[in-house]
Each structure stands twice: as structure tokens, then as C-alpha cells.
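Aim 2, interim progress. The first record below pairs a target sequence with its C-alpha cells.
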Amino acid sequence: MIVGVPCEMKTDEYRVAMLPSGVEELVAAGHQVVVEREAGAGSGIPAAEYATAGATIVENHSEVFSVADLVVKVKEPLASEWPLLRRGQMLFTYFHFAADEELTRNVLESKVTAIAYETLRGKDGNLPLLTPMSEVAGRMSVQQGAKYLERPQDGRGILLGGVAGVAPAHIAVLGGGIVGKNAAQIAAGFQADVVILDINVDRLRYLEDIMPANVNTVFSDRHNVRDQLQRADLVIGAVLIPGARAPQLVTADDLKVMKPGAVIIDVSIDQGGCTESSRPTTHSEPTYIVDNIVHYCVTNMPGAVGRTSTYALCNVTFPYVQRIASCGLAQSTSRDAGLAAAVNMIDGKLTSQTVADTFGLPCSEYR
């Protein structure tokens, strides 16, 4: 099989979808790997390392798509890449279809086989390919929140941990999953006052047991969310419904009860955002202000720490790449229902029920 690794075209995206070690293993197994020359540059991996591992280095982005049976990426294909997709080709990447109808319809029209990292299920029902990037984004959310709370960044001028005689920042984390857990742990290390909100009481009990004393848990209902918004200096949106659009927990009117200069870091923006006023931003222009509230809604947060994120991502994605390349998709998915759950589209048919429900499209069962 020919496996292609292109450069990521998304603004300020520095990750790459395969390491030289992965190339070496695929080539040793008899596969061909085609890598675009600058694909690893943002992660500090020069083309020479891929070449030494046995990859064929190409200069053109389109050339990767034209020859590859399986294209491995990090982020969804941009509009400029849609014409490069072809029927029967497999594309393995983060798609987040439910947040983007135009992307959904165009990839569907290409008849490519879309295999989504974010809906692949592990043996215990977890999301193993989403977990490492959720860990990175959760930890980064506090790092970014601390920065944008500074007055020169239009924030309230709050130090997360406070100092002797001055109260620390109050941080509300909406969602107690992987992102929320990691955000709370880092915020606790800054000595901030942290509250995690979630609708899963068992999850709240678990978090209550493992978190330090400056992290508390609150059941997420409309009253408690609004109460926390009034108190918060920093709000971290960490809500996830796998494969579906994120629920909007914060309305536009809610911004009026928040403190001027408070910051919202909406990590859920990949899935449409959990705040009504959220809209996608980039690392080049990460924030905007609505009703005196600073919004940070970068859709590829982990891309800013490309080296860390690349290694964390490839550690979990490569075994699946290896399996698909060696056994083919049909055989691989017949043996692994979790991998089958990652197939969102095939031959012009949508196979994800959540995406179909989001846009009112017909859904076919993947077999």
C-alpha cells in the first residue's frame, strides 16, 4: 500500500501525522511511504530523517494525494484540498464533521473513505486517538487563560494564584472529561480556585477523590452554570459529545453577567463550541472580545506545541495506520468494531449517525 503524509495546510498548524520511526516500520513491511518535504518541519523533524527511514520525499502537496492509497493527516482537509480527494482513497485524520456542514458535504461528494480519529473507539469504549490531544489542549487552556487574563491582553489583570492577602482567580471548567481533568490539574498547580461542572455524578465523585483541595465539583445544570459564570475570572469550555456538535452551555445573554475582562477558552470549538458567542480563531489571531469578555477559540490548540503534540498523537495513531496498511480497511474493521466506528464516510455514503442527525442527511450502516 502507498501511504501519504502531506504538510498540514491549516493556519499555524505545526503537527505532522507520522514520525520517521513509523515510516521505517511501514517500509520494512513492504509498503511505500510518500512524505511531502516540509511535512515535519513544524515539529522539528527534517525531511532527511524521513528519507533515511525509507520515505520517498516529494515537493508538491498534490503529489501526495495523487499517489497515496491511504493519506494520513492531522487536521481536516481544507477547501483547497477537496479537489485532491478521490473515490476509493482513504483519509485518516481529525474531521469533526458535525461542526462544519460545508466540509461534510464536500468530503461526502469526493467519495473518499473518511476515517475520523475523533470517533475511533478503544476496547473499553474510550476515545484513544482523541485523548492525547485533549490532554494537551486541557493543559494549554490554563496556560493561555493565564496569559489572556493579563491586562495588556485585555483581561482583568488577574494572577491565577494570587499572592498573600489577595484572592486567587476563580476558574470554572465546563466538563469533567479528559480536557476538563487536565485543565483542573494544571489550574490547581497554579493555586487557583477551581470548580469543575459535569452532568455525570460518578465522574464528579471520581474527580472529587483525585483532585487537590482547591478543586471542587458542582453538578452542571442551568442554575449552577450561570452562578459560576458570575463568579469566574476564567471559563474553560471542555464539553464533548463524541462525533456530535458541542452543546451550547453559555448563551450570548450570559456574557452580561460575567465580570468585564473575564476570559473564555473554548476548547470545544472543534465541535462547534459550547458558547453561543464562540467562533473559530487561529493562533495568529487567537482572541476577540464580545460584551467585554475575551474569547479564545483556536481550533487547533495543540498545533502550537507541534513537537509535543506530534509525538503524543503518533504514539496512538500509528498502530491503526499499520493495521490498515497491512490488512486493508475491510479486514481491519471486521476485527475491530472500534475502528469501524471511525469510518464516517465511504463511497459517497455517510455512516456516522450523529453527523447525519446534525445536518438532516441520510445515514447508511457501515459493514
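The second target in this work package is listed in the same format:
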Amino acid sequence: MNKLSSALIGAVAALGLMMTAVSAQTAKPPSAAAIAYAKEILAAKNASTIYQGAIPGLVQRNKDMLLQSNLNYQKDLNEVAVKVVQAFAGREKEIGEEMAKIYASAFTEQELKDLATFYKSPLGAKVIAQEPAAFNTARQFMEQWAQKISEEINGKFRAEMRARGKEI
């Protein structure tokens, strides 16, 4: 799994936790300072790498869907895709803006300030650098574990069915 995918897994997990925290808090909008600290944190974590290819990816996905029923327009759709990417260039930044608001809603302004300071520290920088590898290793372990347990479960099903006189 590449760094982008690892970062995405981490970001999704973090966003999930933050969304839970946000729903537990009041609907008071975050302050401009809180949003600014959240943006510092996201910048330190290179969060933009998660969504920087969003527009080209979405354009490609839409083009591929259109091609399924319009194969004779492949050349035209390829040319139009370039224009569409250009027309929507920069819109992925909306994701970053919303991520900052989510962070700012999930933490107090002081917590965000402390987090921003932490991520600028040597330990914070190490966390940022090592977290993707740790998530990747954990993901690999979980996949291996799931495969092993799945094989054991399959064996248990077969044994139980064999005990009933039914070979599967």
C-alpha cells in the first residue's frame, strides 16, 4: 500500500473520531483562530496529499462511466476530460477547508494550539513521519490475521458439516 493510501486510512479514521466528537458538542461554529490552528495541523500532517488528486480522479471516473455507453466518443471524451479537469482545478481545496472546520469543531482552540505546537516539535514530526508506516504494518497484520481466522472458520464449517454427513 502506498503512502497516499496509508494517509487516507489515517485521515478517515481521524475524521471518524472527530465527527463523533463534533456530534457530541454543541453546534457553535468554530472561531477563526481555531480554524487557523486546524489548518496549521493539517498542513503539518500534509493532509492535502489525501485529496490533491480528487478532481482528476473524479473526472476519470465520470469519463469511464460515460465511455461504457459511448465507446465511439472515446477521443472526444478524452479531450473534454482535460477541459473538465481545468474547469474544476482548485475545487479540491474545499475538502481542506471543511477538514479544518471539522478539526476546529472537534477540539477547543487551546487544544488546537497545543496540537499545532506538538506537530511542530521533533516528536510531533516523528509521529507524522512514522504513522503511515505503522498504519500500513497494522493493516498488513489485520489482513493476515483475517485470512488465518477465515481459514480456521472455513475448516470449522467443513468439520461441522462433515459431522452431519455432508461434505462441502
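The CA atoms of residues 113 and 165 lie 66 Å apart. This observation will shape the mutagenesis plan for the next reporting period.
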